[in-house]
Design a protein that fits this description.
Order of helices and strands: HHHHHHH
CATH topology: Tetracycline Repressor, domain 2
Distance between the termini: 26 Å
Number of domains: 1
Number of strands: 0
Number of helices: 7
CATH superfamily: Tetracycline Repressor, domain 2
Largest sheet: none
CATH class: Mainly Alpha
Radius of gyration: 15 Å
Shape: globular
Structural class: mainly alpha
CATH architecture: Orthogonal Bundle
């Protein structure tokens, strides 16, 4: 007999965090090249710019991490570590999937990143 894990209903923070992960790693954002999250296309470029540009980019990343951290369960350290890992999965999962021509592999990368992020989240 298969038992399913019962999850508590998601609170508002969990709903917001879940939506960020799902939207960030969506097929639509993979196909869209213009109006996307700034962290998808810019990290490599920003790392090579001056300090002022990096400081302008940083708040978006911090807000993403904060959303994940507020929705998480566990100790303060666990919430923080998981939030950082989920943000990294979202950003790099999409960057990698958009960097290759093989659509099947790109879909697999995005799907794996989303599944891992949501499993890690447990919100």
């Amino acid at each position: 007999m298969k038992t399913e894990k019962i999850r508590k209903p998601m609170d508002r923070n969990g709903q917001v965090a879940d939506k960020i992960v799902r939207d960030y790693l969506s097929v639509e954002d993979h196909e869209e090249t213009g109006d996307t999250f700034p962290m998808i296309g810019l990290p490599n470029d920003i790392s090579r710019t001056d300090r002022a540009v990096r400081q302008a980019f940083e708040p978006a990343l911090k807000l993403m991490i904060q959303s994940f951290e507020q929705a998480a369960n566990g100790s303060t350290q666990t919430r923080r570590t998981n939030a950082l890992a989920i943000a990294a999965l979202c950003v790099r999962g999409m960057v990698l999937s958009r960097s290759i021509e093989d659509r099947k592999l790109a879909d697999e990368l995005r799907g794996a990143a989303k599944a891992a992020a949501l499993e890690l989240a447990k919100w």
